[in-house]
Design a protein that fits this description.
The chain has 479 residues and is of the alpha/beta class. The chain is built from 14 helices and 17 strands. The two termini are 67 Å apart. The site of magnesium ion (MG) has 5 residues, from helix 13.
Length: 479
């Protein structure tokens, strides 16, 4: 990497010394030119002695073809901005604080006061962070967001050589952005670390290619030189697994407490409702069909029956009865669900199709409950799909994980991002006549079978619910 230095003072001389002294591993930095107004500036003098190109006007540097990086060491922000404006696009520019940071890092390698043993240990520690043992993305970043060093893990991920990454902006390399990270989902901890001079942490949320959320803990640890923060070590760690486990636990806790409440309420409501229903029916018996009150009584009956249906569903959801399991073939079960929902699909002019695997192993399940879960998903899918759309139910066995995967996909309207966390909550509904209990009940059923249910959705394109059930052989005679 060929470097041109603007500002040929002591900092420049120190840099020349550092590069001379130090044996670099992957980048081979070489200072090829120095610019300074003062003919007697220490760095310029040394450069001249070494036979390097020297000039009093840094504008002479911009036409040269042998420069990869311009280092501005005068500390003058206007000069730095001017360099950024005038330099060729392929040439990178870094400012004076980086030289300070380079020195800081080089101390790890070169501190004269360290014993050989200490030196080896410190060097090993630096290598551990930057290169080998860490499965996290690590960067050393200057206050202007430029990368000073980067570890192998991140380089592999972004497909760059170390030399290509150094000098570029961290957000450009790690996030493919052209401005620093910002916003609720990707806040940048660097300004806070610089301001407070303390470590600063945030969480970044990204979407993978299947629109699944990925969570990263992003931390910045300030690096000091003479009491001044001259850069940060930025570490980013994928914490998606931990976040998902936490989410599942919170969801379970929420559903369990709502379940207890619902069971109590439903139980108490059931008795008065039976009384209302019988009384209305008795009154209707005494009323003529032609009497206008007959129709009103009919409305009371219908609405009370609707309440009763809700209460039954609530009890279904709340009752944590142990499933009574027997051996079944999931392909047969999926076919039964399709038969049972075909009419509804036809009514909405939605095609319903299956994709089944042959020779599925048998699985121990509570057939009625799993069927109820699949029908809930299929009805939701049909409801969310415009006429002419398609709903597909599929089932397969994944031998590597010993799990069955059942998916219910639709080409419907999709679920808005802000609803994703709520759809499994009891009573969450966006439909006119829904109770919002379907998915809550489905979630409970799958959980009782030791399985999981996930959802992926793209607005306007469709939704896929995936149920994963562990191979439960129970008392099935496999021989
Ligand atoms: N396939 C889907 N596509 C789009 N949105 C969906 C889909 N499945 C569920 N939802 C959303 O989740 C909400 C909750 O679903 P859930 O099955 O729990 O209740 P519901 O269908 O509204 O009422 P119920 O099932 O009790 O009649 C729905 O109202 C809808 O907003
Ligand atoms: Mg539903």
């Amino acid at each position: 990497m060929n470097i041109a230095v603007v500002g040929g003072g002591t900092r420049c001389r120190n840099l020349l010394d550092l590069i001379e002294r130090h044996s670099f591993q992957e980048i081979f930095p070489k200072v090829v030119a120095v610019a300074d107004k003062r003919d007697n500036a220490a760095g310029l003098v040394k450069a001249r002695k070494k036979g390097l190109f020297v000039t009093n006007d840094y504008n002479d540097l911009f036409d040269r073809d042998d420069i990869d990086l311009i280092m501005e060491l005068t500390g003058n922000q206007d000069i730095y901005n001017d360099i950024c404006d005038k330099k060729k696009k392929t040439v990178r520019a870094v400012d004076h604080r980086i030289a300070l940071l380079l020195r800081e890092i080089s101390v790890v390698y070169d501190d004269q006061n360290l014993t050989q043993q200490e030196l080896r240990e410190t060097r090993a520690r630096y290598d551990v962070i930057m290169n080998v043992a860490i499965n996290e993305d690590v960067m050393v970043i200057a206050p202007d967001y430029r990368i000073l060093d980067v570890n192998e893990t991140l380089l592999k991920k972004v497909g760059l050589e170390r030399e290509e990454a150094i000098g570029r902006y961290c957000y450009e390399v790690s996030h493919h952005r052209n401005a620093p990270c910002s916003g609720e989902r990707q806040p940048c901890p660097l300004p806070e670390a610089l301001k407070s001079q303390k470590p600063s942490q945030t969480t970044h949320i990204h979407l993978d290619k299947d629109n699944r959320e990925l969570f990263y803990a992003v931390s910045c640890y300030p690096l000091f030189e003479n009491g001044e923060v001259i850069g940060v070590v930025g570490i980013s760690r994928n914490i998606t697994k931990d976040v998902n486990i936490q989410k599942v636990m919170m969801q379970q806790e929420k559903l369990a407490s709502i379940g207890r409440l619902a069971a109590g309420v439903a139980h108490e409501i059931n008795n008065p409702m039976t009384t209302i229903l019988t009384s209305v029916m008795l009154m209707q018996e005494d009323t003529d069909h032609g009497d206008p009150r007959y129709q009103e009584l009919q409305t009371i009956t219908d609405e009370t029956l609707r309440c009763s249906k809700i209460v039954t569903s609530l009890l279904d959801f709340a009752r944590q009865m142990k499933p009574s399991k027997t051996a079944h073939n999931l392909s047969d079960l999926v076919m039964e669900c399709i038969v049972l929902t075909r009419k509804q699909a036809a009514f909405n002019n939605v095609a319903i199709e299956e994709s089944l695997s042959e020779d599925l192993p048998l699985i121990n399940i509570d057939k009625d409950k799993i069927e109820q879960a699949l029908i809930n998903l299929a009805l939701n899918a049909i409801e969310a799909t415009d006429p002419g759309g398609k709903v597909t139910l599929s089932v397969k066995f994944v031998p590597e994980t010993e799990t069955f995967e059942i998916t219910v996909s639709d080409s419907g309207r999709g679920i808005p991002y802000e609803d994703m966390d709520k759809i499994f909550d009891p009573f969450f509904t966006t439909t006119k006549n829904g109770t919002g209990l379907g998915l809550a009940i489905t979630h409970g059923i799958i959980e009782q079978h030791g399985g999981t249910i996930d959802v992926q959705s793209k607005l306007g394109q469709g939704t896929t619910f995936t149920i994963r059930l562990p191979l439960d052989l129970g008392d099935i005679d496999v021989h």
